[in-house]
Amino acid sequence: MLDIFQYGFMQNALVVSFFIAILCPCIGIFLVLRRYSMIGDALSHASLAGVAIGLLSGGSPVIGAFAFTSACGALIEFLRIYFKKFTDLLLTIILALSVGIAITIISSGRLHANADSFLFGSILTVSAFDMVSILVLSIASVAVLVLLYNQMIYIAYDEDAARIAGVRVRLINYVFSILVASAISVSIRVVGVLVLSSMIALPVATALQLRLGFRRTLLFSVLFSVVDILTGLYASYQLNVAPGGFTALVSVALLLAVMLAKRLWLLFRLRKRPRAHTDGR
What class, spelled out in words, does domain 2-198 have in CATH? Predict the structure, then answer.
């Protein structure tokens, strides 16, 4: 197994995957608790427009994805004021804007690079510059998460109470949208746009099955994410398939395995429970 990591592109992909495995569930747990997982899905599709803009301008597609997705995240937060009762419309607006831009640029024939690898993920496309960009974005995002940890937990459980308590909810929501954009932009190289939301939500969904406290749920989310991505990375290389799709399959399989193990454990405990004796017999 370790023989494949002697190649430079696999070493780059391994480093990037490790940081993705840490960052995505750290962002995802707040999205899931706030029931915003579909917003993460919408922003992951929006990143394709950022990739197209980055390729068209001759710059880094990762930086392009980060900039455009950050703008879309801020736009969602801004539009929440006008669509308080119809928040699902925000996703339609963002998808229409971003997918329209992406299709227009890609179909124009002006791109000098293939954008397909960003749809499905590719190990071969992770360059040294991309790796440095991803490391910087990941470290900065984790640092901001640590700094705003208590406030973000408060907002995740009760946004109105947090606002009454003096937490700057609006500002932190804008910052959080940038963190989501960071998690998405660092992941598109390996995971791909189409299944990126699975790496944000599924490890968290798996950890939630254990019914632990917030911190232990977060730690198990990272653990499951590492297993998902590294297994998907290795298996996709061996099977010669796109890593994004196979990683999503591994994530679903691990979720089902944990749910089955939890069910079997509950049945085992019920059988081991001593039966009540009937008095007078």
Answer: mainly alpha
CB 13 within 8 Å of CB 123? yes
Is the model's pLDDT at 255 over the cut of 90?
yes
Predicted structure pTM score: 0.83
Closest CA to 40 of 180, 155, 170, 157: 180
Q: In the predicted model, is pLDDT for residue 219 greater than 80?
A: yes
19, 106, 193, 278 from 231: Cα distances, Å: 15, 32, 19, 53
CA separation for the pair 267, 84 (Å, rounded): 44
Q: Which residues contact 71 (CB under 8 A, 6 or more apart)?
A: none
Mean pLDDT of 180-199: 81
Q: What one-character DSSP code corresponds to residue 86?
A: -
Question: What are the structural domain ranges in the chain?
Answer: 2-198
**What is the rounded CA–CA span in Å between residue 51 and residue 38?**
20
